Amino acid sequence: MSRQDAYALVIGIGQYRDEAITPLRFTNADAKAFAELLVDDDICGVPEENVRLLVDEEATLFAIKDSISDWLSRKVGPDSTAIIYYAGHGDVEPDRTQSSHDGIANYLLPYDTSSTNLYASALSKEEFQGLVNTVRCKRSVILMDACHSGGVATAGSRKMRVGYSQDIYSSLAEGAGSTVIAASAPNQLSWEDENLGHGIFTYHLLEALRGEADADGDGRISMIEVFDYLKRKVPESARKLGGAEQTPVFKADMSEDIVLTVNPERIARIAEEEAEKAAAEQARIREVREKLFNFEKDNALPARAHNRVNLLIEKHPSQLTAKEKSILELMNAMCLGIVSVDTFVEHCDESVDPPGPTPVPGPKPIPQPPPPSTEEVSSGLNLAMILCSLFMPLVGFIAGLIFLGQQVEPKKKAGKRWIIISCVAFVLWFLLGACAVMLGALDQGLSNPYYY
């Protein structure tokens, strides 16, 4: 997530205009703490002007819809990250449109919600989905610390009435790069606790983003790492503090994980540690080489063993075979004076075959064409075809063409011969025929009594 290209709408509602809606004690603290974390240069580093915070009376239905469909939608670009955080009441009522599968309508409750008519005054799941769809960017993250269904309202829960609904989060996560983490499953309550000073979900979310979720210790915290942390911590705290079940929900449609926070100090420290390790390794290799050189200089270590070990100490441990590892262990023991040089050399000769010259592949043999066939045309066939070409030129011509197309040289020659004879015979037969016609015409003329 690029810090400069991230935008967030943070909503926290604890006091409602309708006094029938139970106040929440820590939603304001949740929203403000999350907004502060986003702009903290050591964690998220999002510019302050890229974060809009709506608390209590600021978070009216119009203000929420306007902030998403206008402010957030205009701010983001194709490569941006959009974050929407909501802490407040969620509620359900019978679906007045009868369009849901289970007959239950789900709502988020803005500040000006009327408890007697959620349909007219609250933000329905479908409306919220439509608002999210107006925000066209590469990555969107939705974090919801509210209940949407299930159970009976109890002090400390972010829910008002009895209800049950199908999973409402799947539709919010539709679209590439979309991710939703919700505080509780659809049939559970989301709890807040006085000792924590936050909602249980948000308390552990803040912990996760401040570094507790960094499972691989690389200084970067992704959405998957955050959820892995929340799914362990939130149920544990809900059972301990409220004696209830609260299981976070994760829905995503993304081709790659989204990094939410980075710890520059941790990343710099990791780079420094890696550089120190590399320098220490180079110093160790130089020291070993110096000792090996001294062993060889004193004529105690043969050059062949020295060369083999020099190659092995440059290898990464993961690339070493079991035999090569045993050689290096014995070498270290030799350098410390635990084993003798002779013992090391003997073990080295037994364990590793001396490197031989790499065989150089010779030139590939050039494929030779098959020798020409010497199959001859029988004299009988040849004589018959010559006679046939003389007296039936068309037959001889066709046979000649067939033999001329063969790959065998003698047959090609015979075919050529028959074609020539056929052509000559055709010309001769044509001339003989023409002469016969002329002689016939002359004879007829002489025998005519009227011929003068």
Question: What's this, in brief?
Answer:
The chain is α/β, with parallel strands linked by helices. It has helices spanning 27-39, 61-75, 118-121, 125-133, 200-212, 223-242, 264-297, 303-312, 322-335, 341-351, 379-391, 393-404, 409-446, and strands at 6-12, 51-55, 81-87, 90-94, 104-108, 123-124, 139-145, 178-182, 192-193, 198-199, 220-222, 249-253, 259-262.
Explain what you see.
- By secondary structure, the protein is of the alpha/beta class.
- The chain has 3 domains: 6-262, 3-Layer(aba) Sandwich (Rossmann fold); 267-351, no CATH class; 379-446.
- 46% of the residues lie in helices and 13% in strands.
- The protein contains 13 helices and 13 strands.
- It has helices at 27-39, 61-75, 118-121, 125-133, 200-212, 223-242, 264-297, 303-312, 322-335, 341-351, 379-391, 393-404, 409-446, and strands at residues 6-12, 51-55, 81-87, 90-94, 104-108, 123-124, 139-145, 178-182, 192-193, 198-199, 220-222, 249-253, 259-262.
- A 6-stranded mixed beta sheet has the order 2-1-3-7-8-12, with helices on both faces. A 3-stranded antiparallel beta sheet has the order 4-5-6. The protein has a two-stranded antiparallel ribbon with strand order 9-10.
- Strand 1 (6-12), helix 1 (27-39) and strand 2 form a beta-alpha-beta unit.
- Helix 1 (27-39) runs parallel beside helix 5 (200-212), helix 11 (379-391) runs parallel beside helix 13 and helix 12 (393-404) packs antiparallel against helix 13.
- The longest helix is centred in the last third of the chain and has 38 residues, at 409-446.
- It is flat.
- The chain starts with 5 loop residues before the first strand and ends in a 6-residue tail after the last helix.
- Residues 268-298 form a coiled coil.
- Residues 7-255 form the Peptidase C14 caspase domain.
- InterPro entries: Caspase-like_dom_sf, Caspase-related_regulators, EF_Hand_1_Ca_BS, Pept_C14_caspase.
- This is Caspase family protein.
- One of its GO terms (molecular function) is cysteine-type endopeptidase activity.
